[in-house]
Amino acid sequence: METDNLDELREEAYASPYFDDESEEYFDEIKPYSSRGKLLGMTSAQRLVIAIMLFIMTCIVGSLMLLVFEIVVPPAFF
């Protein structure tokens, strides 16, 4: 009785539409996605500009925070 159920399951699995020969044609039509040199849709030059801008913003905000908390006092304020 169990072997009958297993045989039926095997037949159903092989009868699945995923094993049809038509599916091979479908995969031939799909173009492979090429992400070479792209991260988040940007080129390497664009990523470099973003990184430089973030670095400059971090330096400016860090310098302003040092001034606000009076850790660094410019000589003009003595």
Your description of this structure?
The chain is built from three helices and no strands. The longest helix has 25 residues, at 44-68. The mean pLDDT is 79. It has one domain. It starts with a helix and ends in a 10-residue tail after the last helix. It is mainly α and 78 residues long. It has helices at 2-14, 22-29, 44-68.
Ordered list of secondary-structure elements with their pairings:
Layout: H1 2-14, H2 22-29, H3 44-68
Key words describing this protein structure:
mainly alpha, 78 residues, 3 helices, 59% helix, elongated
| Number of extended strands | 0
Q: What portion of the residues fall into strands of 2 or more residues?
A: under 5%
Query: Which oligomeric form is depicted?
Result: single chain
State the helicity in percent bands.
55-70%
- Name the structural class: mainly alpha
Unreliable runs, pLDDT <50, ≥5 residues?
none
Mean pLDDT: 79
Rg (CA only): 31 Å
Number of helices: 3
Q: Give the ordered list of helices and strands.
A: HHH
Please state the overall shape, judged from the principal axes of the Cα atoms. elongated
Largest sheet: none
Overall tally of structural domains: 1
